[in-house]
Each structure stands twice: as C-alpha cells, then as structure tokens.
Amino acid sequence: MTRTRNPDSESESESKPSSSSSSSTGMKLIVPLQGVVQGRGGILLGSLIPCALFYFLQLYLKKRRRSNHNNHSSNPPSPSSSFPELPRTPSRSNLSSRGSITRARLSRLASTISDDDSAYYVGLNRASRDPYHKFSNPDGIIQLGLSDNTLSLDLIGDWMQKWGSGGGDDDLSINGIATYQAFDGVDELKLAMADFMRQVMGRSVHFDTSNMVLTAGATPAIEILSFCLADPGNAFLVPTPYYPGFDRDVRWRPGVDLIPVHCRSADNFNLSMTALEQAYAQARKRGVKVRGILVSNPSNPVGNMLTQDMLYNLIDFAEDKNIHLIVDEVFAGSRYGSEKFVSVAEILDSDSEYIDNRRIHIIYGLSKDLALAGFRVGVIYSFDRNVLAAARKLCRFSSISAPTQRLVTSMLSDKRFIQDYFETNRNRMRQVHDEFVDALSKLGIKCAKSSGGMFCWADMSGLIKPYSEKGELELWEKFMSIAKINITPGSACHCIEPGWFRICFTTMSLEEIPLVIERIRRVVEVCKSSS
C-alpha cells in the first residue's frame, strides 16, 4: 500500500523549517520505509535503518538552518534601527505576569522549626521586642526567661579593659587570629580549659586534652553528640522537668526523640530509678530504640544535684542497657547551696578499672560559670575515640573563632582572676537567690530546694484555674501582659505538674528585686480577685 503526499504540506515545510515540521516530514518518509524493511529484513533491520535515516535527515535540516542564519547575520543592519535585535529566549515566553499561584515548598525541617510555638521561644521573642530599661523603656518586659548571668559582668569588664587589648601578647597578634586555626580548638585553649574544669569540678579530677573537642557553645556540643550517638528516630531518656533547649539541640537537626522520665514535686523532682526503668520499658514496647540518657547536673531548671549514688546507678543502668550516658555539667561552678556537687568525671577517675568510660560523655561550657554566653565556648569531653574523631569533623560547622580562643586562653590562664571571680560570683548568687526566694514566699509562692544553677523553680499552682496546662499558659500570659515579666512555664520544660515556673534570678541585681516582686504582686492580686 502506498501513501500519497500532500503538496500543500510540502510547501509549508519548505517555507518554515522548524523542528516540529522537520520531525513530521522525516516520519512521513520513514514510516513507509519501515514497513518495507520489516517485511524483508526482519525486526532488527526494520528498526535500525529507519532510525538512521531519521538521524541523517535531522542533521541535514540542522545544517540548512545554520546556513540560513549565517546568511541573515551577514546582511548589514538597517540604518533606521538604533539597537541590534535581541534574540528571544524560549524561557521568557513562559513567564507569567501574575507570578506563581502557590508558594515554593520548604523542607520538612524548616516547616517544623518555623511553626514551633513553644512558650519558651515565644516569651524570649516578645521580651526582645520590648526590653526593659531603667531609663529608656521602664515599662518594657523584664527578661527572666533566659539563663544569663549579669551579676558579675563588671568583673569580666574590668579584666577585659586591663588585659583584653592584647598588648605585647604574641597569641593575640594578627598571625594568631587571622589565619586558620584547629577547628576543634587550639591546644593552648584546651590546656587552659582542662585546668579550669579541674578547678570547677574538683581538684582531684584529671582532664586529658586529647579527650576534648571545643565547640561554639554547649548547644552545638549536645547536637554533635546527638549526631554521633543516635540515628534519626532513635531516642534519649531525659528526666523532667528539663531545659527547653534540649528539644532544639537534640530533635531539630539530629532527628533524635526525647522520652520524658517524669519526676514529681513530692521528691523535689529528683530522679527515680523506678521511673527510669518504666520509661525505658515503655519505649522498647513501642519499638523505639533508646540510645542514651541525657541529664543535667546541677539540674536545669530545678537546681538540685545528682548524688554520687545516683550517678553510679545511672552508669550501671547505661551499662546494663548498653546505651550511653550524657551529663550536661554547664552549671557545675554556679553553686550557692549546701548540697555537694559530684562530677561524673570524678567517678570515672576513681573507678576507671570497673567502668566502661567509652559510653560516658560530658558537656561543659563557659556561658554560665564564667558569664561568657556571647563568647560561645563549649566542650565535648569523651573517652570514645570514634566519637571524638567524628566530633572533630562535625565541629567544622560550629568552631570557635580564633580571636575568641586566644582571648579566652589568656583569661583562663589568669589564675588569680579566676579565683577572685568564682568567690565573688558565688557570694552574689547566694545573696540574690536567698533574697528573691524570701520575697516570693511572702507573696505565697514557694520554690523548690536548690543548690546550683541560675533559677528559682517556683510553684504557682495556687494561682492557676483550671489546674491544667491551659490554666498555666493563661497565667503565663498574665505575667507577660500585666506584670511585663517573661518567665518560663513548666509545660515548656515538660513538667508533668501544672503551675511550676522557671525564673532566672541571675539577670537581676539586688536593687531590682523590689521592682520584680512588685510586678509579680500585680498578677497575684488579679488572680486572687478573680477566684
């Protein structure tokens, strides 16, 4: 069977040598040939020969279009035209003047973080937009939700003014700060940090610099350890109430879940091994792989401390379950009470022959004990060689700046200053803490017993109605709007009992306590009048 060819179609193809018309013409030639060849030479030749003919036809048409284009470009431009004609790009014809109807998609991580409405972050943001100042903004929000220590900043300022300019110190010369440094911390700072930690946690404790990785604060230190110890979907057990930032440090990027181990006010929120066992068993029943225990010592937010017996129990538990133990000791030097502080490093030193120290990891930093939150200096202390090797590579994303490392090295090496700072800072913390707790008690607000940290863990359950998380958040909103004070509600710390609030007392001076108490009184009176 033969096919006739339309003369009109041929003339259109010759006058408009576009790719679509070329393809159409080629196929008209090839289809009958394919039928002929398939009839005689079989399927293989019937496929290859038409494809080859089609390829050569396309090559011929392409050369023909290029020749026509060269002839056109060789003609002189018209004198009436001031500018050469710009070639039209196909993409421009696809642009819509109205723009895209739907928004470009974001990652799951970005969507999750941007929608985080924890009262902890909401309060910090609201206070930062309307900060209290004695003269410029006396009606602003007083920030008592952030764990800053401003009680002894004058001591830091005096040292900086005297020694911080660098002088003739070679370490602070341009060669020591402008070039690349070790991303996991320079050796000089590690040596100074090891000596400082020994002074803070007990002079009998030895810290080996080869077990150290320095990071830009304790936050990335916890995050890096989470990356090293667990996979996304795994979990850590965490006694409650716990620091709200753990959710950010462990969950956001590493994707590790936190399983609360609920502690209660009847035990001053001390950890119970029974509760720990139950939380672990329930997680295993749900199919969750528990990779470690995360604890803070002293506790944030309660301020109580882990006893030596409890630390031994946690180590035994970790070994029995074949999991890790992470101890956050960033408040180790911020002590003011009668309880004795015991670092897990002290236990590892004394019983190193009987404990697998590779599963024990310590977090430390200078944001709390030395009030250098803005300097961003943190420490991972571990005995596991693989963890240390991985952490050294991961800390490339959160290394401490070279000028900061050199400056902090000089400060930590000034033994007289460090000794005077700790003595003065602890006295000031004790004085403000006792004064503030006493003033709260006169308003009918009791605080949990504490010996370390920067917080009062205050029981305001008598002011909430209904007795639930909803009532707690409504009371928090009254503090924000009526008292103009930002404090952290217990629900943000995953406290199982409604009505507890974390109040940072190290951000106010003795002279500011009456102002804070007067503002709290407003809320107390409003709550009592409405009950």
TrEMBL record:
The keyword Transmembrane applies. Residues 1-26, 67-100 are annotated as: Disordered. Coiled coil: none annotated. Residues 90-100 have a biased composition (Polar residues). Residues 143-520 form the Aminotransferase class I/classII large domain. It is an enzyme of class 4 (lyase). The chain crosses the membrane at residues 42-61. Keywords: Ethylene biosynthesis, Fruit ripening, Membrane, Pyridoxal phosphate, S-adenosyl-L-methionine, Transmembrane, Transmembrane helix. It catalyses: S-adenosyl-L-methionine = 1-aminocyclopropane-1-carboxylate + S-methyl-5'-thioadenosine + H(+). Belongs to the class-I pyridoxal-phosphate-dependent aminotransferase family. PANTHER family: AMINOTRANSFERASE ACS12-RELATED, BIFUNCTIONAL ASPARTATE AMINOTRANSFERASE AND GLUTAMATE/ASPARTATE-PREPHENATE AMINOTRANSFERASE-RELATED. This is 1-aminocyclopropane-1-carboxylate synthase.
